[in-house]
Every structure is written in structure tokens, then in C-alpha cells.
Design goal:
Distance between the termini: 55 Å
Largest sheet: 8 strands, mixed
Number of strands: 14
Family: Belongs to the GSP E family.
Radius of gyration: 20 Å
Helix content: 25-40%
CATH architecture of the largest domain: 3-Layer(aba) Sandwich
Number of domains: 2
Shape: globular
GO molecular function: ATP hydrolysis activity
InterPro entries: P-loop_NTPase (IPR027417), T2SS/T4SS_dom (IPR001482), T4SS_GSP_E_ATPase (IPR050921)
Order of helices and strands: HEEEHEEEEHEHEEHEHEHHEEH
CATH topology of the largest domain: Rossmann fold
Protein name: P-type type IV conjugative transfer system ATPase TrbB/VirB11
CATH class of the largest domain: Alpha Beta
Pfam families: T2SSE
CATH superfamily of the largest domain: P-loop containing nucleotide triphosphate hydrolases
Number of helices: 9
Length: 305
């Protein structure tokens, strides 16, 4: 590993290892904010000098063959050899501050399904949710930022038969599986990159997947992903940013409209054939618990419209 990178990781290590920590924010040199169990804590750190932080960002950009400068002012990447996601903005994109660096600290373990609280009125049990996976239902996990979407996805992936052949597509290395027979594809965060979601999905269909896992649906991949689901690829699991299950349906509709001019009715019917259940997850800001608050049987929902 590059010496600079190794030295900086050692500087961050005490924060990475803090129990309950999930996000680092750096806004100026020699200090950072650490989110622990949903609360922000401020730390002074003389090791986080301006020169080191700038070199760190340039190294990360170069490692993924990205540019980070006045013309390319957003950097979305990860620390090589880890699953720590990094989002940074160039100082020319900021108002009167030197840095905007976020480092997502993933959970150190894959949680049991019981660690996600079930809403009192939810007509589904933990066994029902796990059976969605063994029954090869197509699942979409919906939630806001920091709600636990990726954590829940990793938990559900544990239910996949260890003998199954997986192909995982993501733009940050956050998904983990113990299946030995897997190909994990890492795409560029921006479509201006050299390897896009289109490239990855085209390749994935030729990699003989028994199950496809797509990290997050957005404007670049929603239509392609749904097309795969509608052509015999069962048992997929994906995530989407939305505040409710109905909002997730609307978000997918909007994502598709960025690519094609299709009527709402046609899109909705297409989505309902591609996805079986939408699982809505939230983080309780008071208790910091992750809670499954809604499970939408999408096919039944569309029938009832």
C-alpha cells in the first residue's frame, strides 16, 4: 500500500475503530467531526495537516483514474483495499472553507436480521423477510441517507445459498458476501468514467449469474436493472433513496424518465413485474435504532390501484 495512504489510514484508525462510529467529516485541517451512535463529536488532531489531506485526495482520485481539480470538483471513491467510502468537494466548490471530506465507516460485522426492529403494525415477521430471499423474490430496500439500507442488504445476502453464483455491481465496495463463487464489479461513480453501469450490466449478463445484486438504483441504471429482472433474473436485491415505499416507486419512475419518455402507467406496470417487495427502513434519531417500518407487496399494490 502507498506509504502516504498507509500513514493516513493509521491516523484515522482510532476513529475507524470507535464503537458505534459511522461517519467522519473533515471541514478544515487539524480537526474532524465523528458521528457516533447518531451524535456528532468534535476532535482536534494535529496530524491532519492541509498538505496531507490534499495529497490523500489526489492519491484517491489517481487510484481510480479520476480528476480532482477546479474543473472536476466532486470526488466519489473509496479507500483502496477497504470498504470505506469517500466523498469530497474541491475547495473551489466551497464557500469560505478549505475542505469537505466525508468518510463512511461501515459496520464491522454483518448484523442478524433481528437487529433491525420491526414496526408494531408490520404484517410480516423476520422469517417472512428471510423467506423472500430463499424464495428468490426481487427485493428493493428503500430508505434515506444513513437509514441502514446497505446494512440490511448485507444481512439479507447472508440468507443466499452459499453455493449460488453471485454477480455484485456497485460503485463503492460496501457489499459483502461469503459466497466463494462470486464476481464483484466496481463501476465508476460518474458516467464520464471509463467503466459505467451499462458496461457492468452488459458484462454481468455474460458472467452466468444465478443471482444479481445491484448496490443502488439511480438515474444511470434503473431501467437496465428492471429489464434484467423482467428477463428471468430472479432473486435480485437493490437499494434506492426514498422516504417511503410509495416514494421509492416514484423515484424509480423518475429515474426511468431521465432515460426514456414513457407513460407513467407503462413504467409502473413494468416496475411491478420486475420487483416483488419494497422494504422501507428508517433510523430512529432518538434511539439510533434501524427500523423496518413498511413492506409493500408491489404486485398487490398495483392491482389495488
Amino acid at each position: 500500500m502507498n506509504r502516504l495512504l498507509n500513514n493516513l489510514i493509521q491516523v484515522f484508525d482510532k476513529y475507524f475503530q470507535t464503537q458505534g462510529a459511522n461517519e467522519i467529516v473533515i471541514l478544515k485541517e487539524k480537526e474532524l467531526f465523528l458521528c457516533v451512535n447518531g451524535k456528532w463529536n468534535e476532535f482536534k488532531d494535529e496530524q491532519l495537516k492541509k498538505e496531507i489531506l490534499n495529497d490523500f485526495l489526489i492519491f484517491l482520485a489517481n487510484d481510480r483514474e479520476q480528476q480532482f481539480n477546479k474543473k472536476n470538483r466532486s470526488l466519489s471513491t473509496s479507500i483502496p483495499g477497504t470498504n470505506y467510502r469517500v466523498q469530497a468537494l474541491h475547495k473551489t466548490a466551497l464557500n469560505d472553507q478549505e475542505f469537505s471530506i466525508n468518510i463512511r465507516i461501515p459496520p464491522k460485522e454483518i448484523f442478524p436480521i433481528e437487529s433491525f426492529k420491526l414496526a408494531a403494525n408490520l404484517p410480516y415477521s423476520y422469517d417472512d423477510i428471510l423467506n423472500f430471499i430463499s424464495d428468490r423474490k426481487n427485493i428493493l430496500i428503500s430508505g434515506g441517507t444513513g437509514s441502514g439500507k446497505t446494512s440490511l442488504l448485507n444481512t439479507l445476502m447472508k440468507k443466499i445459498d452459499i453455493e449460488e453464483r453471485l454477480v455484485i455491481i456497485q460503485d463503492s465496495p460496501e457489499l459483502r458476501s461469503k459466497n466463494k463463487n462470486q464476481t464483484s464489479i466496481l463501476v465508476d461513480k460518474k458516467d464520464t468514467g471509463t467503466f459505467t453501469y451499462q458496461d457492468a450490466i452488459d458484462a454481468a449478463t455474460r458472467l452466468f449469474p444465478e443471482r444479481l445484486i445491484l448496490g443502488e438504483l439511480d438515474t444511470r441504471n434503473t431501467l437496465m436493472s428492471l429489464r434484467l429482472n423482467n428477463t428471468g433474473h430472479a432473486g435480485t436485491i437493490s437499494t434506492v433513496h426514498a422516504n417511503s415505499a410509495e416514494d421509492a416507486l416514484y423515484a424509480m419512475n423518475l429515474n426511468i424518465r431521465f432515460e426514456r419518455d414513457i407513460s407513467d402507467k407503462t413504467i409502473t406496470e413494468y416496475i411491478s413485474r420486475a420487483i416483488d417487495y419494497i422494504i422501507q427502513i428508517e433510523r430512529n434519531k432518538k434511539t439510533n435504532e434501524r427500523e423496518i417500518v413498511e413492506i409493500l407487496d408491489l404486485k398487490q399494490y398495483i392491482k389495488d390501484l
